[in-house]
User: Fold these one by one.
Assistant:
Number 1:
Amino acid sequence: MHMAAPQAAIITLIFVMKVIAKYFKVFAAFLILAALIYGGYLLLHGADLAMPALFKPVPGARLLMSMEGFRFAQSENGRVSWRMNARSANLYASKEAQLKDIEIVFITPEKKEAALMGEVGIMDTFTGDASVHRGSREVRVVTSDGYLLTTDSLMWKASDRLVLTPDPFKLLGSEIYLEGRGLTANFDMRMIVVNNNVKAVLQE
């Protein structure tokens, strides 16, 4: 059975129209995509594009970890010569530790102790050097011999066993009251050098 010529022509025309419609959709999608790309180019051309924070390198030192209950100690000849405790610490790849609620305890061979206390500080975990600064309370050093030193900041030089401050300070002991600006002292307050404005009162 042969199909009539008009029917064959209609079927062919429908097939051609479907093919044209299919390619038209693809072409239209391509035009829309091209228009979006070109529009984005016009919108952003000459703009200072900021890289998303997720892909930006972190400025400064790289944070390795944050922890609670940080402890650090140094020993000499099998004896702990000083130890440091902090409520929390951020440890960086640069060997720096940022600390909160710090206590550094110095211990002499004769078992005498002195404790340096402050709210915030920074410690070099390679050398053991630290700087401690006041928050709501002053930085304090309390010794087992009864000395109390108060000031706004103290630096601890681990290799020399010295505390230093450029700030005004007050030192109270059982036999002396001392104040001034700028101080260098060994940790048990037996050797003290005052830079400026020294005032000393001997107490009976």
Number 2:
Amino acid sequence: MSASLQDQLKKSGLIDDKKAKQLKRAKHKQEKLARKAKNPEVDQYKLELDRAKSETIAKDRQLNLEKNKQAEKHALTAQIKQLIEMNIVAKNGDQKFSFTDANIIRHIYVGQTQIEQLSRGALTIVIQKQGQKQNPVLVPMGVAKKIEQRDAKVVVFKAEQNTIGEEDDPYADFQIPDDLTW
């Protein structure tokens, strides 16, 4: 077996035991310093991994929040659609009832009793979305209130309650013609 370089140098007389021990200690110190020097690099690498991991977790949380918001939005849309479909009042009649929808005057053809119910507030007009098409439909006021809690934009006509009392009405003495249509 071959002897180590240090043993060979001792045999040849180039170094003595004292010098060999000094070389051994110096070598050990260099190895120790090299290990210490590697530790900050390892620690820095671990820190970078931890930071990248935390950023990934934060991004995932953000994506999950956005997905949850989209799911809630779709659920509300489905609830509104179901409320409208289950409580739709059939339009029967040929009298034109006009209402405004986002500064646009729209018309719906209904009967006289439905016009009276609309003016009293028993019925309301909501928009039923069918793909890209939007149809105005009649629903009872209770259902419209539930729809309005979910999305107020869907309810386009709701009879306003008279804030003026009967005794304070300045036009109470004037008769409204029966054939007046708007």
